[in-house]
Amino acid sequence: MCNNMLQYGHAYAWAREHGRKSVSMRFCYKYQYFHICSTHYHNFFTYLFAKYMAKWGIMPVVSFHHADEDTTEKERRLEAAGNVLLEGWYVRFYDLFLKYKREILDLFAFKKSILDKTRSYLDAATAADDLNLGIHIRRGDYKTWKGGRYYFDDATYIGYIRRFAEEHPERNINVFICGNDPSLDHTVYAAALPTTNLFFPAGNPAEDLCLLSECDYIMGAPSTFSLVAAMYHDRPIMWIYDKTPADGDIMFRNFDTLFRRIE
Q1: Angle (CA) 46 47 53, round 5°
Q2: Residue 108 DSSP code
Q3: Which helix (H) or strand (E) holds 173?
Q4: Which of helix, strand or coil describes residue 247?
């Protein structure tokens, strides 16, 4: 979901800069959690029309399938075409993305039902002066992605939560743990972190994303999910690269820096 949000964000920014209209094929029919899904032309008919126009060779296709390639010729083709299908995970127009980030965020604003549910949950669980830490535990496909490099066990996440708490001894800390591991053992975290307020929301993908975005800090394995959560309100985010925290304070970054480092 978040891969698609960022991919379209880059495409939208390029189109916006060049006075062109754009539509996200994926959000025409899938992930119906966001404002963009209710905007003009975002419907299943548009998806089918674009898909088959490209399949039959009526609409040109420009592909971005490789990192660090020279895109000069591809951009020339985009400018020369009328209607064009842009595809590939390596659509990257970083500076334009940042230029139009506010508009991209408006497009991907959560639908009211999701935002209201999330904020009601947080209001009931926290106090105004609490410090809220969002943890994104990524399992599933991460067991094999990059050889399992970022497939961390519970001890890793617990270690980073504990270090974060140690760095804020004067604050009441609430930790909201989201992720894609349905068998996550909550009791392991409760036993290891007895003085920390732990919450396991178990929402749908958009609800988890919205909740993380509302936290004061975000931590997790390198993932576009936590990255997009940080984008909404420019929250400090730390990607976990190692099994144990390094000496010194935990270092947080912001979206504008980290989104250039997607692997």
Answers
A1: 85
A2: T
A3: strand 173-179
A4: coil
Q: What is the mean pLDDT of residues 151-179?
A: 95
Specify the DSSP element, H or E, that contains 175: strand 173-179
Here the contacts of 238-243 (C-beta below 8 Å, separation 24 or greater) are: 238/160, 240/150, 240/152, 240/156, 240/157, 240/160, 241/150, 243/152, 243/153, 243/155, 243/156, 243/159
**CA-CA-CA-CA dihedral for 38, 41, 42, 46, to nearest 10:** 150
| Percent of the residues in the chain that have a pLDDT greater than 90, as a whole number | 88
Structural tokens at position 168: 């804020």
pLDDT of amino acid 244: 87
Is residue 230 pLDDT above 90, yes or no? yes
Residue 177's H or E segment, with its range, is strand 173-179
Model-wide pTM > 0.70? yes
pLDDT(246) > 90: no
Q: Which helix (H) or strand (E) holds 220?
A: strand 217-220
